[in-house]
User: Fold these one by one.
Assistant:
Number 1:
Amino acid sequence: MNARDDRIRQVVAELDVHIAEVEARVAVLKSLLAEDEGPGEGDPS
Amino acid sequence: MTDVTSETLRRWRESQGWDVPRMARELRKAARDTGEDVAAHHGLVKMIPQWERGARAPRERYRLLYLKIFDDALSFSRGATIGVDFAVRLAELRSRADGLPVPGEVRALETAALARPRRTRTPAEIRALAAEAVAQLHEIAGKLTELSALLGDDQVGEGKS
């Protein structure tokens, strides 16, 4: 395996981490908005 | 190729970011290179999904063409092969990256989240979450560009900017 292949694997690993972190942060933001769509105070259920 | 499933054929194709017509062109190109006689483009476009669904099995000449194509396509460089598992991982990463919001969408989420008081997050935390997500989207775009250059293709991803 040469340096280029090593770098490819490293970039892929870093991408994996970055993507997972963005997914997690976006999920938190969306969960906050989901509060708006939950049962409201006047909801009889 | 007895251990190559129909699902593997689909994954191999998707690992390169190829649609079915592109796969058909690649098969015909590989056939031309070796002097093989294969079906016309429109015939292959019909057959490839059938092979990938397992509805029918590719004949030997097509199986050999698949091996020839992906032996080349899954190679990073001379003497080094990434292997199917790694190519599949790349395809999954591309798919996940494509599914991420663009920075403007993150900002819109931030604005919406800040529009009302939240029980679980302070406004400062919400702003920090959005800022970190946007910064990482730029990092991802840069990494995808670098990966594209390293792989010598233009299909790793469009990037998020």
Number 2:
Amino acid sequence: MIHRIALLLALSFALAAQDEGINWLDSYPDALKLAKEQRKPLFVEFRCEA
Amino acid sequence: MLSPKDSPLGKQLEQYVCVRITRLDNIDVGLFEHDRNNAIYFYALNADEQIYLRYGGRDSASAETYLQTDSLVLALKQGLELHRRYLAGDLPKVPRAKALMPREIPLLVKRTFDNHQCVECHLVQDYQNMHRELDGTLDPLTHLYKSPDIKTLGIFLDVPQGLLVREAKGAAIAGGLQAGDRITALDGTPVYTFGDLQYRYDNVNRQAERIELTVERAAKPVKLTIDLPTRWWWTDLRFRQSSVDPRLYFEDKPLTAEDKKRLGLNPEGFASEVKYVSDFAKVMGAHELKLGDVVFGVDGVETDRLAHTAELYLKLRTRVGAEVTLDVLRGGQRIKMPLKSSRMSFRK
């Protein structure tokens, strides 16, 4: 139970990073390509949804 | 809780290409290497796959001890500055970590890919450890007791401020660390976030006796040597639901020197008092320990270089499924008791 609560809290934190209007890709290769084209850095989020 | 584009977080994120990964099937887990018992973890890197920094990490008490919006904003700013330096040719190139694809882990393929199941983050680590166990390279101190806790060293951070030290105690204060210092490197490797610090600290050889911390103090770099205390690597494994450590279904606490003397036990031994027994002990037929029992030996062994309790001795020195004989003191009587450990199923 405690583990589950902790996980939920962590995920609720993740929601804070899901910015309205921020375009989150779901393909790492696509993100790499775009970062190269735009000379931008990548910000990669690993989220365990299991 | 949303952070619009014009929020401090949104303003930073807009300058990145953001990608969210929820399945590891086709991800290079050699490059993105971190403690997989984090439900969420972040990296800032460039298109050449040079990692600038990590953001994430946790302690045994909570998954979110070190997750905080202000420190995330700070990390994103630092990532942008590192990227600016990289583009200007002002940042040393770091050799890319050796690639490792999940399909190169045979047990993961057999039990997950072949069953069309999700490659859950923790499974990568769990099956890597199972392979280490099978080929004899599993080092419990390194592979089970992952992500040592900096608080054991006496380092307490002002979490919203990243690596700013709020308080120093114990080994850290003895080594000269002060409140107000900002940690900038561990053993010479730059660290920008708690995630970086925990990752680098986890990579310290478990036999090491000291580490070197570089801190920024009054705008100047200061190098500090911190002596590592006994069992600096120890962490509570209970939140690691599917670790390969032997499940024992009891917890204990070390006896004091006075208690050992009073009970006539080896003063250097790992004798410990049972303080918790899980109902699973009976279900699994693991043992018949009771609260208050004192376990002072395992297969006749009473001392260990590292373990200070019987529980830790069993975790470090026996394999899952091992059948051993405990020496137990119960009600003033010395008795022998069988114990058999087991493994938690990896599937929730």
